[in-house]
Amino acid sequence: MPGPEHTGVIHDIGYQHYEGPRLGRAYASRSLYVHSVRGAFGLGRSAWAKVLPIGLLSLACMAALVLVVVNTQLPVQVIDYIGIASTFTYATTVFVAIVAPELVSTDLRANLLSLYLSRPLRRSDYALTKLAALATAVFVVLAAPMVILFLGMAFSTDDGISGVFSEAGGLLQGFLAAAIHAVVLAALALPFAALTGRRVFATGMIIAVSLLTTPVSGALLSFSTGDAAYLAGLITPGNLLNGIDRWLFAGGTFDVGPYGPVYGLVAAAIVAVGTACTIWRYQKVKA
Amino acid sequence: MVLIETNALEKRYDEKVTALADLTVAIEPGIVGLVGVNGAGKSTLIKLALGLLEPTGGQIRVLGLDPRTDGEAVRGRVGYMPEHDCLPPDVIAAEFVTHLARVSGLPAPMARERASETLRHVGLYEERYRRIGGYSTGMKQRVKLAQALVHDPELLLLDEPTNGLDPEGRRAMLDLVHRIGTEFGISVVVCSHLLGEIERICTSLVAIDAGRLLRSASLSAMTQQSGLLLVEIDEDPAPLLDALVATGLEVRRQDRALMVRLAGDDGEAYDLIRDTIADLDLSLHRLERHRHQVADLFRDAPTTEASYARS
């Protein structure tokens, strides 16, 4: 800026019209996406908004550090990348329950939709962008500990460069599992969060759907045999995702027998229905 | 170019509530006051113009485009300040306006620059790095105005911009709107249920009532001098009325004053009135060309049950 700004005098040069480029819908969605992913971790918001999401992310990373130590000290590897996706599922569910309301309930509460929808964004653009932002945030929470595990394992491998490549392959598989987890959890949680402007209610609903079904599923897994045990994981999101890990990556915490594709179908259905509900919900929101 | 043009525009909610019925109006560039009582359909008209609502009948065109089919193009060129609260409390004003500038399509560096410029223009420069939650109502209204202005729209739609402000704040907000319309050269449609308040800054007024057009005219046409002369004397005007009628002038009584219609040579009528009053030995209190008051015009309009509150 030219001129003597150090004097603190603001020179009024009058109103300047904007002659530059005006980018369209895609750019508008991208801007909202970046803003939302940042907002999911409390960036650009108050210090309190950062506490829970950043706290959970740090816990996940610290757990990964501990796992690196355990893995390298013990003769057998206790956890791999898929294992992180499977065992961290409940923590990520909690993360989703906190972050999904942050992304959509606060906008509803503050009536922000009327400002977004009076711009080149469409209603469905808003819904899909928020969904993508939530999935990205969940992916980060799962992928960050995997990266830490990879760094730890790659530096301590005894097999030289081939060991590093084998770890990298595992990491890519882990990323794929993390992406599946992220998309399913986001599509499951966002429609609930979009129902209310009260964050507490939204968090409560997501917790209820995701975690209260867990003991039922757990009991069925433990006390039944055969097909019932194989299918018991379907009724709660955490075990559903574990089932997919078992089916696709031979990970997971329980056996799904021949029913792996059923887990895949149910997950795909959740993503489709969740996305449709979110879009439908935002057709109804008053601008 | 006409800013907003509607033809037999109709909007019903749930087949029952009629917000707009058969509204045909052309809004020309300038600072346009959209007046009507609460519930007259002002906000509905604005939302139809933005393409946020679908009309149930008739047509609307904004800046020559149809908001139903070219919604994105319309919304890219229009700025909208809603009536209700619409700001997140825990975000810094400068960041918020920058973000919305980007959603309007401005590249990041330009968005940042224009956000700061716009906040300065609305009078929030020193405070722009504070969180919106700590702002007063007046400052929040300014942030709302800034987000509508940040992408340099061709048309600004302001829904009750003085809502919730004290008299000083209302005056400042209206002065700002006036500056935007004149110095910045951006056309403004400003909604208000307070006619007396916005007539001061507007170049034309559109009055709607119960979803119908009551009256639409430029303000100069509305407040132009009428061909009437107002005569007020301290005494009972009855004898003067008779005397003036006797001289051949067209006179009628209005409360304590007399209205004299001017025809042909003005000076003659003035002289005649002066002489008549002198002859009757009355004391003249007031003699002036009568001007239409905007509010009077609306009061005289066909559907007059709507009363316009004056601040």
Could you explain the architecture of this structure?
The complex is a heterodimer of chains A (287) and B (311). In chain A, α1 crosses α4, α2 runs parallel beside α6 and α7 crosses α8. The model of chain A has no long low-confidence stretch (mean pLDDT 89). Chain A starts with 24 loop residues before the first helix and ends with a helix. Chain A is an all-alpha fold. By secondary structure, chain B is an alpha/beta fold. In chain B, the strands form three sheets. A six-stranded mixed β-sheet of chain B has the order 5-6-7-3-8-9, sandwiched between helices. In chain B, a hairpin with a 2-residue loop joins β11 and β12. Chain B is elongated, with a radius of gyration of 24 Å. The C terminus of chain B is likely disordered. The interface between A and B is large, with 37 and 42 residues.
Give the beta-strand count of chain A: 0
- Quickly count the helices of chain B: 11
The geometry of chain A reads as globular
Distance between the termini of chain B: 33 Å
Q: By helix and strand content of chain B, what is the structural category? A: alpha/beta
Give the strand line-up of the largest sheet of chain B. Answer: 5-6-7-3-8-9
What's the helical proportion of residues of chain A?
Answer: over 70%
What shape does the CA trace of chain B take? Answer: elongated
Computed CA radius of gyration of chain B, to the nearest angstrom: 24 Å
pLDDT averaged over residues of chain B: 86
What is the percentage of strand-forming residues of chain A? under 5%
Summing up helix and strand content along with how strands pair, one would put the structural category of chain A as mainly alpha
Oligomeric category: heterodimer
Instruction: Give the SSE string of chain B.
Output: EEEHEHEHHHEHEHEEHEHEEHEH
- Give, in order, the helices and strands of chain A: HHHHHHHHHHHH
